[in-house]
Amino acid sequence: MGFPGDMLSRPGLRSQRHGRVEDDAPTPPGREAPGFRWIPIRSLAERHRPRILAHLLALGEADRYLRFGHAATDAQVGRYVDGIDFSRDEVFGVFNRRLELIAIAHLAYMATTPSAEFGVSVLPKARGRGYGARLFDHAVLHARNRGVDTLIVHALSENTAMLRIARSAGATIERAGTDSEARLKLPPDDLVSHVGAAVEDGAAEIDYRLKAQARRLDGLLDAIADVKAMIGSTTGRSAVD
Ligand SMILES: CC(C)(COP(=O)(O)OP(=O)(O)OC[C@H]1O[C@@H](n2cnc3c(N)ncnc32)[C@H](O)[C@@H]1OP(=O)(O)O)[C@@H](O)C(=O)NCCC(=O)NCCS
What we know:
The chain is of the alpha+beta class. It has helices spanning 49-57, 61-68, 74-82, 131-145, 160-168, 191-235; strands at residues 42-44, 90-95, 101-109, 115-122, 150-156, 172-176, 179-185. Helix 1 (49-57) packs antiparallel against helix 3 (74-82) and helix 4 packs across helix 6. The longest helix has 45 residues, at 191-235. The termini are far apart. Coenzyme A binds at residues 4, 63, 66-67, 119-122, 127-133, 155, 159-162, 164-165, 168.
């Protein structure tokens, strides 16, 4: 059985989950964040390859095992990232306020059947906040809009979180020893799926630009503070006078 991103292979519908991309403080297991939260999910492109690589290399051995079906070495992860075909597949990402790529999903479209394979990873510090499930829902929407009728996830049978995401979306799970395959039948695309994807993509793009501007502003304020401190030290006056 192949795993999403395995070099031998290529990489539903539930109620919408929403989340806010917060600081990196780990969320205690089982704690549900209160209230309505929206998670901005961006479509990634060729230029994001280095950041995708950095995200995957940040995964420890156990996570790489869960993600790729084997404890992929850095070189194997590098080959996987080099092999992503952005003209065929879709890759989605969640950025935090520091514009770090904290979650990624790879939706690989099959050439011969109207199906696609889903693979996902969330950095350990960002887990348990619904990113994995939201990326799955987002992938479902995009897959439907491309005419896909079946979404497939290969996961280790021990991968409770991944199988839970697929099962809650309505997927059927077939277990074959240590490996499991989840299959989710997708409804055809419609106006709502197209408008929904367009709105999500547009809002995520705006969110990213706002974060980038906020970071530039932070940098500017830091530079001003440095200049003030320098002036203070040369004139003997306190920088905060
Ligand atoms: C699998 C993975 C993507 C889940 O990401 P996540 O953002 O933490 O998942 P979510 O917060 O959306 O949680 C999804 C569901 O799994 C449950 N869950 C999360 N972590 C869990 C854990 N360690 N054990 C059991 N259930 C868990 C959540 O409670 C939630 O269930 P619910 O909807 O019934 O409440 C993440 O653990 C990961 O990156 N693992 C390493 C790579 C991997 O396994 N990829 C999948 C194979 S392609």
